[in-house]
Amino acid sequence: MAESVRPVIPETGDRSTPGRRGAVVAALMLSMALAALDSTIVSTAVPQIVGDLGGFSVFSWLFSGYLLAVTVTLPVYGKLSDTFGRKPVLVVGAALFLLGSVLCACAWNMGALIAFRVVQGLGGGALQGTVQTLAADLYPLEQRPRIQAKLSTVWAVSAVAGPAVGGLFAAYADWRWIFLVNVPVGAVALWLIVRHLHEPARELVKPRVDWAGAVAVFACGGVLLTALVQGGVAWDWLSAPSLALLGTGLVLVAVVVVVERRAAEPIIPGWVWRRRTIASVNLALGALGLLMVAPTVFLPTYAQSVLGLGPVAAGFVLSVWTLSWPVSAALSQHVYRRIGFRDTALLGIGLATLFLLAFPFLPYPGSAWQPALLMLALGAALGLFQLPLIVGVQSTVTWGERGTATASILFCRQTGQTLGASLFGAVANGVLAARLGGADLDSVTRTWGPDGTPAPVRHAVAEAVHAVYFGAATAAALAFAVLLLAPRRFPVLDPSGE
To answer: 99 with 121: CB under 8 angstroms?
Structure first.
């Protein structure tokens, strides 16, 4: 039986003209902006959406459905981009995302909107993974921090601009415009990709796609992530739905293992976990996803209920880390060129552990500048941590493995965020229940009023958030320990590497 031949692609970056490469980079940034803006721009319009369509009891699936679709498709798109090339996967992903956006704008009830958000997520998975992979294809190793810093800046700007843009549409236009605004942005990105992205010719025998593995991975990830997202929220952890989903998920894990072992070109190949460098980075970035939940989910609650800030000011306390993260990421190349990828990441996550541990020791109730300063420092530390690991892993694999490797680390980070939301939500609610006689975070937020949060509630929320930050510091320490298992010098294939 004929086997597919891996394309031989030069590892020295894109050979096109600077102008053409600049157009492709612009397309990548626009594509990343679509994915980055999505959750933040939608969140501010939820009251208007629920007021128009109803469905308050299930509106959280506007976010969960999208997240699930993105997460479970990342490994599939990564393998497909290694098999068929980046361009067709990116084009299909952008088209799916735009189709989902138009359908969301036309939704007639909450059920339809949630279903169309899943369609958006199916496209978003292709955008996130393929953009990161193409960024490594376009530039040689010594220039990759430049494009990665640009992509980090897109995330930073989106985190700040998304709520503002969503609020403007919700207040002065119609919530449906938050989806329709994707169309011109995505159309420009698609045009630039189709016109200017020309991948080197690849000589392939008929590729063998592991469709059975793709379905198994999709089903397994969907069931397990649904159990994590809904457990402790829609139903108790030990209830029949949770146990049924977790049991089904474990069975599907066994199915995935069997199917992937028999596949000629598995969606999740064994080398992803057999190579010490990639396996340790996967676990470390899974811990990153876990710890990121503490500030992104719980800091705004802390700022409003404990510090007494309004929603806008609370958002600013959180958003300052988006200022230092891309700057630190851009400068990280000067560090890892001297001490290596692993040691730079260890420095970053070590500092992050200290900053997370410092949060519970802030004075009570304190001033807004104190957590803001810690968030600024935390963003700088995580910029030193994440980017060297992504660039490092991408530099240890060939072109035909880069999509799979990149997707694996993004998948682990997304899964960590899902697990963190469930785990830390349970921690926070447990502390609140112990201090307030059974109250949870949702009921506490309803106590906010014009006269501020009652003192007992403020103390309880502070203790709950402190417990979450201790948990996040533990996750950071675990990431540090896992990275110690990685080689001190990554086995870089690019001759201009470490």
So the answer is: no
CA distance 239 to 73: 28
Identify which of 136, 135, 127 has the alpha carbon closest to the alpha carbon of residue 186: 127
Q: Report the alpha-carbon angle 179-180-184, nearest 5.
A: 125
Distance CA 150, CA 363 (A): 36
H or E element in which residue 402 lies: helix 399-436
What Cα–Cα distance (Å) separates residue 228 from each residue in 242, 245, 384?
9, 9, 29
Tell me how far apart the alpha carbons of residues 70 and 121 are, in angstroms, rounded to a whole number: 5
Closest CA to 459 of 340, 299, 305: 305
> pLDDT by residue (tens digit) across 163-212?
667 767 766 778 888 888 888 988 998 898 888 888 776 655 566 777 78
Q: Using only the alpha carbons of the chain, give its radius of gyration.
A: 22
CA distance 335 to 347: 10
CA dihedral (149, 119, 254, 242) positive or negative = positive
Between the CA of residue 162 and those of 25, 150, 186, 424, 464, what are the distances in Å? 21, 17, 16, 25, 28
Are 366 and 464 in contact, with CB atoms under 8 Å apart? no
How many whole angstroms separate alpha carbon 324 and alpha carbon 405? 27
SS3 assignment, position 185: helix
pTM for the full model?
0.83
Chain segment 33-73, per-residue pLDDT in tens: 888 777 667 766 777 787 788 776 677 778 778 888 888 88
Helix pair 144-172, 369-394: axis angle to 10 deg? 130
Residue with tokens 């690019």: 494
| Residue 155 structure tokens | 């995330």
Q: Phi and psi for 235 in degrees, rounded to 5?
A: -155, 165
User: Which letter does DSSP use for residue 139 in this model?
Assistant: S
Tokens in use for 400?
A: 């035909």
Placement of tokens 């997304």 in the chain = 414
